[in-house]
Design goal:
about 325 residues, alpha/beta, six-stranded mixed β-sheet
Amino acid sequence: MSDIRLTLGCGDYDLTRALIDGSVQPSGIDLTVLPMPSPERHWRMMRFEEFDVSELSMSHYLVAQAEGRGFKAIPVFPHRRFRHSFVFCRNGAEIEEPRDLNGKRIALRTFQNTAGVWTRGILADDYGVDLSSIYWFTQHEEETPWTPPEWLQIERVQAGANLDTMILDGDLDAAIYPELLPSFARGDPRVKRLFEQPKEVEREYFQRTGIFPIMHTVVVKDEVLREFPWVAVSMLRAFREAKDRCYARLADPRQTALAWVQDLLEEQRAMMGPDPWPYALEPNRANLEALVRYSHNQGLIPRAPAIEELFVENALSESPRYVS
């Protein structure tokens, strides 16, 4: 019997490298891997469902599940990122601490993207930021058409407008963005981070909450799962193997162009344990529950589902094994 042919849309990361280069092959699957940037991949999956299996924004997935869309997740989370580092403000906007964001004009790529959901939730939970007081400005169309809640003051900037330029020109006060703003990356003195020592703030956040924020999951089309239910477990195991190979490469300092890579790994291990990227439900339950709560509170989903509802059932338990 021939392997079934499936497509995978994913990011080009060290965690997915072995799937991309073919050195890891999911059992029973002839996999065509299509690496691409997140905005393109999420748009193509949410709007057109182009891939059989796809890495997808966790926030977009929650919206999709609320709408009964035709795909379901496996407990694989190939992208995470602490978010305190990605709040930027304009010098002169009178923003010195998080509460100063209240009433300001803040830029977003979209409202639904996971980076924004996490950051807004953290700002509200930990710093008393009133999300309803802020004037939100988005650059791109939302991946899923959506009616904002009445309390939310939100509008999209004019086509062709650049949020970064608008901040520099004084039309906006701050930005919550998935990546570094170009102005900040090139050292423009007109823009600064809200948190001047973000790594220390992020370390304290992790030590207090145990959360390393999940950005993305992996989904499989329902039509694939109906015909081949074993695909969920096969893909889960392949992603785990690719991650294990990534860890093995990182453990060899010759594989990484960083002078103190071993020191960084030891620091990470001491704080976050041997596997900061677990691909399973239970180690991520608090993480997922926080994101679900934030998505519900921010008006993106009508109810907060149980975490088990979000994932393919046969990918949530480990198969019995003989002792070794």
